[in-house]
Amino acid sequence: MAEATTVRRSRITPEREAELYAAVLGLLREVGYDALTMDAVASRTRSSKATLYRQWGSKAELVVKALRHQKPVNIGEIDTGTLRGDLHELVTREDDCRMEQDTSLMRGLAMAVHENADLLRALRELLFEPEMTGLERMLRRAVERGEIRADNPALEYVPHMLIGALVVRGLVDNQPPTQAFLTSYIDAVVLPALGA
Amino acid sequence: MAEATTVRRSRITPEREAELYAAVLGLLREVGYDALTMDAVASRTRSSKATLYRQWGSKAELVVKALRHQKPVNIGEIDTGTLRGDLHELVTREDDCRMEQDTSLMRGLAMAVHENADLLRALRELLFEPEMTGLERMLRRAVERGEIRADNPALEYVPHMLIGALVVRGLVDNQPPTQAFLTSYIDAVVLPALGA
């Protein structure tokens, strides 16, 4: 507990936080969620477990915040002036190599959530719901600009269209999702379904 | 080997085959793919391992053929005369309870394929590719009837749209896919994207 008190006095710098998140994601890629321990994170980052728990509360929260930290752009920050521009920006903000790494990480976590209710809750609250809110705002702007009719029934299915294509690309075509695939899918499926 | 020879003389009856597949799926639900052993299947069905290997070759093949056997309808058999009718038939051939069970089984297998290349191959060859061929035929008929333009770019993404929605329903909405959801998604997304 002495250690925790010491840390409570000194704030973690953004550089140190970034270093820590990178170590967490590295471990996650190496051993997966279930085998990842707070001990291993503490040891690799030369911090104490008390520090980790004080700062993040739980392994689930630490992992999800590390994922959130590495995201290059939040949907909420995208606003190109057209729906097509916004959606293309959404899928081209990560290069293909990063997208493949992320898809593989998320696939691992998608398995782990079935055994870890706290991971599912953290993923929903910290990662998924903010993105959904950002996507809703993006679509609302398109409705206000007159690009989509407000009563178009496809509006509520945009998350299913986008996340679905990303997730099943490997299964259907035996290759990872790429910017080119997602951009073409947006033009061929998402925008026509929205009547945009 | 004496046992295998005996069995080679007597053919397995369709009733016995159905009973065996039901036992395999039961075990799969209980313990998952990795923990399922040919020993357990042999013991539960009062057959010999030699019989199982002679008839099915491998655990992967046995499991995938059991999955294929329980499918109520093959896509290839659906032909209602309209694309909308065909797609609705496709998603209403299973009741919601069965669909939930199947989704949970397939989720388990989707995890297992990353560790078991022979399972992935068997799933592709015995289950997935025949379904894709049936779907392609369904879409070709719609093109021939003039319901879809042959050059519509959404044609190649129909599997992504359909399987994607099924797979991510739980993640996006925190509830299992149902007939009502899939039927509404087909009307709101798939048919409009195809211009049908």
TrEMBL record, chains A, B:
PANTHER family to which the protein is assigned, alphabetical: HTH-TYPE TRANSCRIPTIONAL REGULATOR RUTR, TETR-FAMILY TRANSCRIPTIONAL REGULATOR
UniProt name for this protein: TetR/AcrR family transcriptional regulator
Residue ranges of every copy of the HTH tetR-type domain listed in the record: 14-74
DNA-binding stretch(es), residue numbering of this chain: 37-56
Entry GO MF terms: DNA-binding transcription factor activity; transcription cis-regulatory region binding
UniProt keywords, alphabetically: DNA-binding, Transcription, Transcription regulation
Keyword field contains Signal: no
PROSITE patterns (alphabetical): HTH_TETR_2
Keyword presence, Calcium: no
Pfam family, one: TetR_C_11
Organism: Streptomyces himalayensis subsp. aureolus
